[in-house]
Backbone:
C-alpha cells in the first residue's frame, strides 16, 4: 500500500529538492532524446545519400558477381528475370544496368572509367542520376550514341555538351568494343570520385556495342515501401532463384552499415559516460536530501512505520519526481528533435568533410522516431530511480532512536 | 756456348708458349662446355631475355582464350625489334580485324578501325586484360624488363635453372615475386609463376612445345593459367604458327602512322 497522500505532501514540503530533482532529470532526458535524434538522423542521411545516389535500395546480381565482378558472372537471362519481377507485388520500379570499364579518349587525353548502360526512364526512380543533371539533358529511352557523363570526368577529358568522345573496352564476348559518342548531358552528384569516373548510356544502344543483349550486371529494385526491403528481398529470392540473388542495401552496403553501427556505439559510450556522471550527481543530491530527513524517518519508525513502509514511501517519491522530470524532458527533447526534423541543421562550409562519409548534402535533419524517444525516456526513468535506491537503503538502516538523535 | 744457351733459352720459351696455349685452349673448351652453371645470374638472365626476344621477330600467332563461359580465338601478326618495339595486328575474328597495337619502350597505343582513332593506353589501364585474355597490357610492355626491374637469385640448378625474381624497390612492377624455370638447353623459360604482394600465386605461364624456327629453337605454345580462386580454370593459349627471327624488320611498323596504315 503506497501512502500517496504522504508522498505528495513530502514532495510539496521539500519543494526545492523536488524542483532540482525534476530539473536534473528533465534536462538529462531532453539531452538524451535530442542526441539520439541527431545521431540517428545523421546516420539515416548518410545511408540515404549513399543508397539513393546510385546503388539503390536493392540489387539483383549473379550470386558470384559481388565477389568476382566480371563477364563470367552476369545476369544472363534478363528477360526471364523481368517476367519474375513483374509478378511480385510491392515493387515500385526496377531497371537493369550493364556496368563495364572502358578507356575514354578525346583529342586531349585518354582516361579510364566506368561506363554503365541504364534504362533511362526506370533509372529516374531508382537513383538520383536524373536529378543530378548539371548541364545539357538527361538520357532518354530512345537515345543512341550519346552519353551522360560525370562533371569531373568531362573536365578531365575536356569535353562539353555536343562534343564527341570515343571509348574502347571489352564486349561481353570479350571482343573489342568501341564507339564514338556525343555528350548529351553532364551530372554532378557531389561525390568527386564518382563524378570523375562514371558515365551513362542508354542500355539498349550500349548492348549492341557490348554484345550484351539480354544480359545485365545488376537489376535495381525499388520497393514500394523501403522499410520492407528485407521482406521483398526474401520474396524475390524465392521467385527468382537460380544463379541470381537479391540483396538489400544493408547487405550491399554492409561496410557502411557497420561503420554507422560503430559510430553509434561510440556515441552511446560518450552518452554513457555522461549518464554515469549524472547518475552520481542525482545520487549524491538524493543522499544529501535524504539525510536531511533522518530525524523525520526516526520519528516515523518510532510511531510504528515499518522499514518497508519507509522504503516504499521514499521510492514512490523518487518514482513520481523522476516520472515528472522524464516526461517533461522527453517532451522538450521530442519538440526540439521534431523542429530539427522539419528544419534540418545546416553545416555550410563543411562539404569536403561530409563527402568523406558519402554525404552530398550539408543539411542534417534530426530523426523523429517516437519509439526511440520512448526508449530513451524509459532508460532515463530507470536511471533516475536507481540512483536514489542507495541513499534510501542507507537511510532505512538507521535504528529509530539513532535516527531521532541524528543531528 | 752462347749459341747453345740462346737455343735452349728459345726452346724453353717455345715450351712455355705451347704450355700457355694448351692451358688457354683447355680453359676455352671448359668454359664452352659449362655455359650457365658457372656464369653469374645477371648474365644468365640477360641471355634468357635475348633468347626470348631475339634481335627481331616476325610471328603469326593464334590466341585462344578459355573461360568458364566461352572460348574465343584471335589470330594476329606480330613484328618486334628486341624488347623495345613491337607492332601487333589482329587478323581474326572479323569483328576485331584491323585492330592494331604499337609498343615503343614503355608506351602503348591502339588503333580501332570502328572509331578510326589512335588511342594511347594510359598507365592506369596497364593492368587491364589484353583482348580479354589472361595477359595484361602491362605484360606486353614490361615483361621484357626482367633484368632491369628484378633482383634475381638462382635457387636450384637441377634439370632446369630455377630463378627467384624479387622486384627492386623502385621498380614499376605489380608482382610480389616471380619464379622462373629456365631450360638449360635453350636458355629459355619453360615456366613462370607470378605471385602477388602477399606471396599468393596469381597465374602461371608455361612455355611449351619447343620447335625450330629457322635456326632458333623456340617455344611454340605459351599457356597462361589463372591461379586465383575467382578465375581458376581460365586459360589463355598463345600458339606461334609461323616465326622468323633475327631478320630485318622494316622501321615503318614502329610509327603511330603504321597503326592506321597497316590496319587495312
Residues:
Amino acid at each position: 500500500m503506497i501512502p500517496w497522500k504522504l508522498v505528495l505532501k513530502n514532495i510539496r514540503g521539500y519543494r526545492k529538492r523536488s524542483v532540482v530533482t525534476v530539473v536534473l532529470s528533465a534536462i538529462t532526458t531532453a539531452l538524451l532524446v535530442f542526441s539520439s535524434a541527431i545521431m540517428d538522423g545523421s546516420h539515416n542521411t548518410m545511408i540515404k545519400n549513399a543508397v539513393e545516389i546510385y546503388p539503390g535500395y536493392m540489387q539483383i546480381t549473379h550470386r558470384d558477381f559481388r565477389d568476382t565482378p566480371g563477364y563470367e558472372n552476369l545476369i544472363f537471362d534478363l528477360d526471364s528475370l523481368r517476367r519474375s519481377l513483374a509478378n511480385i507485388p510491392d515493387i515500385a520500379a526496377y531497371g537493369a544496368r550493364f556496368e563495364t570499364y572502358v578507356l575514354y579518349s578525346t583529342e586531349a587525353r585518354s582516361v579510364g572509367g566506368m561506363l554503365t548502360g541504364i534504362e533511362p526512364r526506370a533509372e529516374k526512380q531508382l537513383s538520383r542520376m536524373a536529378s543530378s543533371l548539371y548541364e545539357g539533358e538527361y538520357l532518354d529511352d530512345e537515345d543512341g550514341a550519346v552519353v551522360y557523363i560525370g562533371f569531373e570526368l568531362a573536365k578531365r577529358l575536356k569535353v562539353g555538351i555536343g562534343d564527341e568522345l570515343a571509348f574502347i573496352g571489352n564486349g561481353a564476348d570479350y571482343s573489342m568494343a568501341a564507339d564514338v559518342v556525343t555528350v548529351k548531358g553532364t551530372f554532378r552528384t557531389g561525390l568527386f570520385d564518382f563524378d570523375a569516373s562514371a558515365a551513362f548510356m542508354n542500355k539498349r544502344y550500349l548492348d549492341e556495342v557490348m554484345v550484351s543483349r539480354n544480359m545485365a550486371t545488376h537489376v535495381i529494385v525499388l520497393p514500394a515501401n523501403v522499410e520492407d526491403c528485407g521482406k521483398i528481398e526474401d520474396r524475390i529470392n524465392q521467385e527468382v532463384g537460380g544463379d541470381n540473388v537479391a540483396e538489400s542495401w544493408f547487405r550491399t552496403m554492409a561496410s557502411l552499415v557497420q561503420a554507422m553501427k560503430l559510430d553509434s556505439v561510440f556515441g552511446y559510450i560518450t552518452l554513457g559516460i555522461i549518464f554515469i556522471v549524472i547518475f552520481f550527481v542525482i545520487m549524491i543530491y538524493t543522499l544529501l536530501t535524504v539525510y536531511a530527513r533522518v530525524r523525520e524517518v526516526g520519528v516515523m519508525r518510532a510511531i510504528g512505520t515499518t522499514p518497508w513502509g519507509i522504503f516504499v514511501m521514499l521510492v514512490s517519491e523518487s518514482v513520481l519526481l523522476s516520472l515528472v522530470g522524464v516526461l517533461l524532458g522527453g517532451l522538450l527533447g521530442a519538440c526540439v528533435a521534431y523542429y530539427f526534423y522539419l528544419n534540418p541543421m545546416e553545416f555550410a562550409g563543411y562539404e569536403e568533410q561530409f563527402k568523406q562519409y558519402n554525404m552530398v548534402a550539408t543539411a542534417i535533419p534530426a530523426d523523429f522516431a517516437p519509439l526511440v524517444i520512448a526508449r530513451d525516456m524509459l532508460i532515463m526513468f530507470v536511471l533516475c530511480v536507481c540512483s536514489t535506491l542507495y541513499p534510501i537503503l542507507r537511510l532505512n538502516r538507521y535504528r529509530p532512536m539513532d535516527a531521532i538523535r541524528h543531528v | 756456348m752462347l749459341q747453345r744457351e740462346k737455343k735452349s733459352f728459345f726452346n724453353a720459351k717455345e715450351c712455355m708458349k705451347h704450355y700457355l696455349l694448351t692451358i688457354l685452349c683447355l680453359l676455352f673448351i671448359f668454359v664452352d662446355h659449362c655455359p650457365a652453371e658457372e656464369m653469374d645470374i645477371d648474365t644468365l638472365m640477360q641471355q634468357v631475355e635475348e633468347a626470348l626476344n631475339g634481335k627481331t621477330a616476325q610471328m603469326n600467332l593464334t590466341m585462344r582464350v578459355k573461360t568458364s563461359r566461352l572460348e574465343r580465338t584471335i589470330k594476329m601478326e606480330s613484328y618486334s625489334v628486341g624488347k623495345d618495339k613491337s607492332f601487333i595486328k589482329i587478323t581474326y575474328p572479323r569483328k576485331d580485324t584491323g585492330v592494331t597495337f604499337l609498343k615503343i619502350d614503355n608506351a602503348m597505343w591502339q588503333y580501332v578501325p570502328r572509331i578510326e582513332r589512335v588511342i594511347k593506353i594510359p598507365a592506369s589501364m596497364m593492368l587491364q586484360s589484353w583482348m580479354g585474355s589472361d595477359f595484361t597490357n602491362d605484360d606486353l610492355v614490361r615483361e621484357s624488363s626482367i633484368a632491369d626491374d628484378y633482383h634475381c637469385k638462382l635457387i636450384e640448378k637441377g634439370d632446369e635453372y630455377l630463378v627467384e625474381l624479387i622486384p627492386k624497390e623502385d621498380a614499376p612492377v605489380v608482382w610480389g615475386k616471380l619464379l622462373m624455370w629456365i631450360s638449360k638447353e635453350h636458355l629459355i623459360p619453360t615456366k613462370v609463376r607470378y605471385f602477388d604482394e602477399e606471396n599468393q600465386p596469381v597465374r602461371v605461364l608455361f612455355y611449351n612445345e619447343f620447335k625450330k624456327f629457322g635456326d632458333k629453337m623456340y617455344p611454340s605454345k605459351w599457356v597462361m593459367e589463372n591461379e586465383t580462386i575467382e578465375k581458376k580454370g581460365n586459360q589463355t593459349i598463345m600458339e606461334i604458327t609461323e616465326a622468323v627471327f633475327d631478320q630485318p624488320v622494316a622501321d615503318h611498323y614502329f610509327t603511330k602512322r603504321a597503326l592506321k596504315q597497316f590496319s587495312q
